[in-house]
Amino acid sequence: MFADIILPLNLPQLLTYGVPNEMQELLHVGMRVEVALGKNKQYSGIVERLHNEKPEAYMVKPIKCIIDEEPVVNEKQLQFWRWIGHYYMATPGEVMQAALPAHLKLMGETRLEWVGDDSVVYEWSDNAFLATEALIMRKELTISELRGIVSARHFAAVLNELLEKEVIQINEALETAYRPRREKVVTLTKEYKEEKAMMALFDQLSRAPKQLELLMAYTELSMKFGVVKQADLLDRTKASATQVKALADKGIFNVEEKNVDRLMYTNTQVAKEIIFTPAQQAAYDTLDKGLKEKNVAVLHGVTGSGKTLLYIHKIKEALAAGKQAILLLPEIGLTTQLVNRLHAYFGDILGVYHSHFSNNERVEIWEKVRKGAYKVVVGPRSALWLPYSDVGIVIVDEEHDSSYKQKDPAPRFHARDAAIFLGSLFDAKVILGSATPSVESLFNVHQGKYAYVALKDRYLGVEMPVIELINAKSLDTVKQLGIKLITPELKEAIIDALQRRKQVILFQNRRGYAPFQLCTVCGWVPQCKNCSVSLTYHKSTDKMHCHYCGLKAPVTHNCLSCGSPRLVSKSFGTEKIEEEVQQIFPEARVARMDVDSMRGKHSMTVLLDQLEKRKVDILVGTQMVVKGLDFASVSLVGILNADSLLSYPDFRVNERAFQLMEQVSGRAGRVDGKGRVLIQAYNLQHPVLQWVKDHDVHTFYTNEIKYREYFSYPPYTRLIKIIFRHQDEPKTVAAATVMAEALLTIPGIAVQGPGPAIVPRVRNQFIHEIWIKCPRDNKVLDHVKGFIKTTRQEILSKRGNTNVQVIFDVDPV
To answer: How far is CA 301 from CA 193, 333, 629, in A?
Structure first.
């Protein structure tokens, strides 16, 4: 018997290994196995297929051992992995690396085992003496532990000294990094589980107040969480472990060390009965009918229309049929608010999965989904990788959002499209929800592929916010007062909102303080030394930052080109807005939500909690504030620089700008309908601004689809972007030119490039791109993909080209 194994490496194909006789009964597809590659490299791989076809090209090595007792990956997952790899041109190893939590990919950690004679007195250098002391005491150390003891500088010399004296042997072993969390858990002994005995116990402990307090705290915690950890009990009562032991000695408590769940949710919300408004009921009936006829439905519900209630009802239907449900969200930050609501409805069968969890937590969620403990899973695109067994419904909320597309590393998949394929594997229904559906999804509706459901009224008939366009030229009249960013009209509106004790959101799509500095004498702009971009000044660190490679440079006060001190800050980011708002409204409590201020694991949760409790008056933020925030007190939204959204060199620029402005405006007046949105712009004649003002998705789509058809852009064609990177620009250009010339031999496709990327150099690597437009024909698309894979191999096999990176991006956004 032979097994095709997926290894976590960028190999173009699977490798075949022999299955020893004693393993043949035990081995199944989806299990992890330990295999050797090369002379001494050990890897854990996933069994993708078992068969009897012996490879002709190479000698087959045997599998060393089976790691799992049952498969960690199921057959449906492997089908999903194959499709992702094929469609998005990723290798099986790249897909495996993305899909599995780190702790299910085993670690190769070299171990040094002490085999010296303890009766012999060895002579050691000072550094080696420390190492031998540790080895004699522990009997073995890992390479990383030894490096920690003797420091990196002396590491090589000490290792050689130990090997020369033959006191250590090296073991190359694979071990899993996952360890279940073990904690002391407190339970009541059997005799006190009866209510009568418990009441008698309370009376009995009335003279021991600390012990009585422990017992009462235990009762409260067990009702809330089910499992009571000793650490929580001590934290709640400020008691000591000795006092808990005293109750254990009396036969009241049992204290045992157990494997405990890392994921404890506290549910503060109460589930409300789902009562639809007439508009929701009509939308729900249409959705029901649509999903009977089609597998995918677009739910076009305006911001604040209550789409979530429809989702909850659909999830309940899937659960009643014994199926699992997946709810995808574009941002991790969105999960916080929504999960509290969903947890009230679904309790412990609800799981959340995203990258802010530790690796151990991710393994536990993986296992709970595999064993069926979690029936409903909420998360961003990574939630698609979990081991589902029977999915009934997949919901993609805010389906238009570009963060559903994985940018780096491979596989560069689009979660919305991947979710539709995953749904098809289980014959599940898929709902794509959005207030501003993507052009691609609306196109599929018009082509009859998807059902369409409109929910045009806000929940309980609340009015849509009033949108006003403000000419940013009015800033010229207030510049002498030191106000540079907020027009007099917006300032008045903020004063009015604060006087009515309402909250305000100000949106600017740039972080930092000043996006670039400029010398007014010679025009010099500080540039990153690694990338072809200007540096952004961040006041919080008082440094110039590169947003591409992370470089931080000291602030320059004199021009490095002409020596002039006349440097001025141009444009503005969220930090600068935060500062100006604080100056204009010194009494207001101002907070900022952007990548820089939300770096901590719980930063988002804390900020959302402060907004909920009205501890923030004005929130300044980037795109993060656009997505799904739902606060009753927000009555005013200000978009400070609409022109920057409308002037990006990308064929999707109008779609992005329309979606962004419509979504951010939807944060205002969600409960009382008295919301206002003020958009500051210089070019007030831009058609997108008028469509946003009228909340007119239909006219926007009609205009946009004509433009896409005229220029042969998606959804009328399929795009593939090929990216070339290398530190030597001529090599990058040469490799890209070879690919472009080869592509020109294929009839029926359009090839653009090669040309420099919008940012032509990042991290000292030059970047050139080729864009291919293919017709919407899978045969042509598969032929082109096969052709460019073969051509890449030919380019990389040429002498001197091994370090050129050639990256494929299918359906780039």
So the answer is: 51, 21, 15
pLDDT band at 206 (very low <50, low <70, confident <90, very high): confident
Collapsing DSSP to helix, strand or coil, 41 comes out as strand
Question: If pLDDT is split at 50, 70 and 90, which confidence band does 787 have?
Answer: very high
* Model pTM score: 0.80
- Residue 317: the pLDDT is 94
Query: CA–CA separation, 436 vs 475, rounded Å?
Result: 31
Residues 6+ apart with CB under 8 A from 129: none
Closest-CA residue to 616 (of 601, 597, 600): 597
Q: Which two tokens stand for residue 363?
A: 């393994």
Residue 77 has pLDDT above 90, yes or no: yes
Burial class (CB in 10 A: 0-12, 13-18, 19+), 479: exposed
Quick: pLDDT tens for 460-488: 777 888 889 998 887 776 665 556 788 88
Distance CA 676, CA 470 (A): 12
- Taking Cα atoms as reference points, which of 224, 225, 248, 221 lies closest to residue 235? 221
Strand order in the sheet with 140-142: 140-142, 107-114, 168-175
* Alpha helices (H) along 184-293: 195-204, 209-225, 230-237, 241-249, 278-293
For 762, the 3-state DSSP assignment is strand
pLDDT band at 741 (very low <50, low <70, confident <90, very high): very high
What is residue 481's DSSP assignment? G
Do 300 and 310 form a contact (C-beta atoms < 8 A)?
A: no
Cβ within 8 Å of residue 245, ≥6 positions away: 255
Rounded to whole angstroms, the Cα distance separating 635 from 668 reads 5
Q: State how far the Cα of 684 lies from the Cα of 71, in Å rounded to an integer.
A: 60
Q: What is the largest CA-CA distance in the chain?
A: 93
pLDDT tens for residues 85-120? 999 999 999 999 899 887 777 655 567 888 887 777
Token pair in block for residue 448: 């009859």
| Exposure on the CB side of residue 290, measured as CA atoms within 13 A | 22
Q: Which residues contact 784 (CB under 8 A, 6 or more apart)?
A: 720, 743, 746, 749, 772, 774
CA 519, chain centre distance (Å): 39
DSSP class of residue 668? S
Burial of 705 (0-12, 13-18, 19+ CB in 10 A): middle
> Shortest CA distance to 299 belongs to which of 461, 422, 462, 451?
451
* pLDDT score at 493: 92
pLDDT at 225 (0 to 100): 66
Q: What is the pLDDT of residues 423-466, one digit of tens each?
A: 999 999 999 999 899 999 999 999 999 999 998 887 777 788 88
Half-sphere exposure of 784 (CA within 13 A, CB side): 29
Residue showing tokens 């009568």: 196
